[in-house]
Design brief:
The complex is a heterodimer of chains A (257) and B (276). Chain A is of the alpha/beta class and 257 residues long. Helix content of chain A is 36%, strand content 24%. In chain A, the strands form 2 sheets. Chain A has a 6-stranded mixed β-sheet with strand order 6-7-8-3-9-10, sandwiched between helices. Chain B is mostly helical and 276 residues long. At the A-B interface, loops of A face α8 and α9 of B.
């Protein structure tokens, strides 16, 4: 499937993070292989966004090691890009100039190419305030990818979009990931989104990893019984429902008959 | 039907700029008529035509443009000095919390002294020289610009600054691309306030102590009971004030094109207001 590995590898071991005596991450261990697409799901306040900020170099861990390609993360890495929940476009720059911020060296042709990648080349010279929410997020994606990052961190990037725009964006992210083979960590609370996109779904609970499942479904994924199985499996663990496994199993048999 | 036609007519009227002038022109005409009928004594208020005659005399002997030039020169130099001081202090205190802690209390105390109350002191310091007027104008201009620059920098969206850092913007690049443009709407509000203060200060300073300028012209005319010249001076201040406000507005429209509340044309402006 992959044509040469381009993405970064990430390794977190014994990671702790405390804010004023409140422990947010506790002994967290996580491995990401180069080019892998990981989704982190969990309820609000489980520490998933904190983990992402540590990986991005926006915060420092209290204890433990966090290695990016075998090197300690110290501050922001130019090969790591973050896509936030809000697009965070600069309203005083035209769309193309917003994308140029992500281009190393600021070449306008590279910015135009990135914009073409997300299908917004005709909006290059408009102000961001005239774009729809989905278009803004696509511009932000173009800006993140314009610098050819090796690790893309997605912090609930589709949370504020409507359902149809969201499906569009998911397809776009998957397509670009398959083409460029960067590593992705997607933080989301939408289990279905995690199952649709990720190679592995990691469930976080109270600052640690509670579940780590490889999604073995072929791509492009369809919402068939296998999809429903994984979705139910993860959702049950998120919601801490009892008799999860046998109910999920029942579901699966009833669907596959 | 009638209602709808009237509505659309009113809407078309609103987009015309001359509509702003209906009120002042009506008042002028009324004033002339009342003056001619003798209802308003010309010793209290000369008629508009008398004021226009005074204007023509002063233009033809060249004094008017001399005085306008002198006053405008003072206004601009004072504005430049006070504006740069206010802007620099605003930047410094907005960017560096330690600088704010050190200087903000003192600045706030000085700011709360009405700067025109310093006139006796200023006359003792500088006499009735140019320096006195420039000092007062600079002092009046510095504070609105300081406050709005400071506020503008502090209210730049922190998430945009974080985004800039993720993309490796640091130091000057971060300032030029994110902090300054983010603070600009607020800074321009400060400029508009400051322009108002600039004229008020200058009027007062020139009426109290000067040997040239529009304020001097008014005070001189008062001594000779030249009511028409007095009224003309007041009108000149109004026009100059309006002119500088228009320039400030034009700057806003030029620099804040991206902003949905400014930008080009009425339509986008309206949209911005309702959506926010």
């Amino acid at each position: 499937m992959s044509t040469g590995v381009f993405g970064s590898s990430l390794s977190a071991s014994g990671l702790w993070k405390q804010f004023d005596h409140v422990t947010v991450l506790e002994e967290l261990n996580l491995q990401v292989k180069p080019g892998e697409f990981i989704a982190i799901v969990g309820k609000s306040g489980c520490g998933k966004s904190t983990l992402l900020r540590l990986v991005a170099g926006l915060d420092e861990p209290t204890d433990g090691t966090l290695l990016l390609d075998g090197k300690m993360i110290q501050g922001l890495d130019p090969d790591t890009r973050v896509l936030f929940q809000d697009a965070r476009l600069l309203p005083w720059k035209k769309v193309i100039d917003n994308v140029r911020i992500g281009v190393r060296g600021g070449n306008p042709d590279d910015a135009a190419a990135a914009l073409r990648m997300v299908g917004l080349e005709d909006k290059a010279h408009v102000w961001p305030s005239t774009l729809s929410g989905g278009q803004r997020q696509r511009v932000a994606l173009a800006r993140a990818l314009a610098g050819n990052p090796r690790l893309l961190l997605l912090d609930e990037p589709l949370g504020a979009l409507d359902a149809l725009t969201r499906i569009d964006m998911q397809d776009l992210i998957e397509r670009l990931w398959q083409k460029q083979r960067f590593s992705v960590i997607l933080v989301t609370h939408d289990v279905s989104e995690a199952v649709a996109l990720a190679d592995r779904v990691v469930l976080m609970k109270e600052g640690a990893i509670a579940l780590d499942v490889a999604i073995t479904l072929p791509r492009p994924r369809e919402k068939d019984s296998g999809f429903a199985y994984f979705e139910q499996l993860i959702l049950d663990r998120v919601m801490e429902r009892s008799s999860q496994s046998d109910r999920a199993a029942r579901r699966q048999t009833s669907y596959s008959i | 039907m009638q209602r709808i036609r009237l509505d659309s007519m009113l809407r078309r009227w609103q987009t015309r700029s001359w509509i702003a002038w209906i009120m002042p022109i009506t008042l002028l005409i009324l004033w002339q008529i009342l003056g001619q009928l003798g209802w308003i004594s010309t010793r209290i208020l000369p008629t508009p035509i008398a004021v226009i005659e005074a204007l023509i005399t002063l233009v033809s002997n060249g004094m008017l443009f001399d005085y306008i030039g002198t006053s405008t020169g003072r206004a601009l130099i004072g504005f430049a000095i006070g504006g740069s001081i206010g802007f620099s202090l605003g930047l410094l205190n907005g960017m560096i919390p330690l600088a704010e802690k050190l200087t903000d209390t003192s600045i706030q105390m000085v700011r709360n002294i009405p700067h025109l109350a310093l006139i006796p002191l200023v006359i003792l310091w500088f006499g009735i020289d140019e320096a006195a007027k420039l000092f007062l104008v600079a002092l009046g201009v510095a504070f609105p610009i300081y406050l709005n620059t400071f506020h503008g920098i502090r209210s730049v969206d922190p998430s945009l600054i974080e985004m800039g850092k993720v993309y490796g913007l640091r130091g000057w690049a971060l300032f030029r691309n994110i902090i300054l443009p983010g603070a600009l709407p607020s800074i321009l509000v400060g400029v508009r306030f400051a322009l108002g203060t600039m004229w008020i200060t200058l009027i007062v300073a020139e009426t109290i102590s000067a040997d040239s300028g529009i304020g001097y012209m008014a005070m001189n005319a008062r001594e000779f009971m030249q009511m028409d010249v007095v009224v003309l001076s007041i009108l000149l201040y109004a026009l100059l004030g309006k002119l500088s406000d228009s320039i400030a507005k034009w700057c806003e429209r030029l620099f804040l094109q991206w902003h949905p509340n400014y930008g080009k044309g009425q339509q986008t402006g309206k949209k911005g207001v309702t959506s926010s």
